[in-house]
């Protein structure tokens, strides 16, 4: 089990830094999220009416229902990309977005001086707490999406 957690910590750090060596500041460079990373296809305003009608028909929806779905999808994607869940201590912090992607990992010199095993434990604890919070935020955003769709559909 210990070897898996070490591999996880190293792979996490490697993917967030440009090399296997941490920068001198020991704060890793922040990655930017991709717009609509959880979803494919065009955004709500990215299609002309003919394309939108064809897509709606292919999905068995009216054009109005399709437009509502695309708008809600865009709102959800924006909310998930903008969400940040941070956990850990001042010496070791991990931040996830609402898509459960790691956005930032920061480890201070005093965190490194704690030793390999303690730092590994702090990193895994911070990752787990941040990930669980991001998952909960994702669930909340899906509930908001479902309520929004239900409200919009009442008007049809």
UniProtKB/TrEMBL annotation:
It comes from the Eukaryota. Keywords: Signal. Residues 1-19 form the signal peptide. SUPFAM superfamilies: YbaB-like. InterPro entries: YbaB-like_sf, YbaB/EbfC. GO terms for molecular function: DNA binding. Pfam families: YbaB_DNA_bd (PF02575). This is Uncharacterized protein.
